[in-house]
Amino acid sequence: MKTAATYTILGIDPGTTVMGFGVLKYQGISQVELVDLGCVQFKDCKTHYEKLRKVFDVITTLIERYQPNELAIESPFFGKNVQSMLKLGRAQGVAIAAAMRAGLTVDEYSPLKIKMAITGSGASSKEQVADMLRRFLKIPLQELNLKLDATDALAAAYCHFLQKKNPISDKPYKNWKDFVAKNEVRVKK
Questions:
Q1: Could you give the angle at the alpha carbon of 98 between the alpha carbons of 95 and 99, nearest 5°?
Q2: Cβ–Cβ contacts within 10 Å for residue 180, how many?
Q3: Could you list the active site residues?
Q4: How far apart are the C-alpha atoms of 151 and 125, rounded to whole Å?
Q5: Structure pTM?
Q6: Nearest to residue 126, comparing CAs of 105, 103, 107, 147?
Q7: pLDDT digits over 26-35, tens only?
Q8: Measured at the alpha carbon of residue 163, what is the angle toward residues 6 and 63, in degrees to the nearest 5?
Q9: Where are the beta strands (DSSP E) in 42-104?
Q10: How far is CA 15 from CA 43, 60, 73, in A?
């Protein structure tokens, strides 16, 4: 009997003040389990460039420790503060570069998509997302007493797992006619 391969997802909520991470393991497209989650703070760094170097180092260390196959990262939320967006985008780019250097596949998810995947509502609060993850992954309440950056990262990883388990589409379609041609059994006549 052939057993399904085991995969590990590293989820990242990028930041230059606090970066969250979450690690999930799954076999095939079946049950998923929490491996670890946490936050890394960059208060001790004096410059933005030191923070970026530390983001790279932390991602590299997490990859070495957990040996993930995939990186799921939250894309930046477009806010009004251009400087904050620039710094966040740089941190995300550094995290992606570290993952690609290690040979991981990388998938990026918007905060809206992550919230929709976890709670069914794009207007959910971070606390609601954290509570749903606690329920899905059977995490004891006292163990989830972490910063929301960690649960945001875990949410990115869980969103990725759900996408792998039930992808919206594994076939590219050019238009509706192409969709119908490739899915004749799904079309009611």
A1: 90
A2: 12
A3: 13, 74, 149
A4: 12
A5: 0.84
A6: 147
A7: 987 668 999 9
A8: 45
A9: 70-74
A10: 12, 16, 11
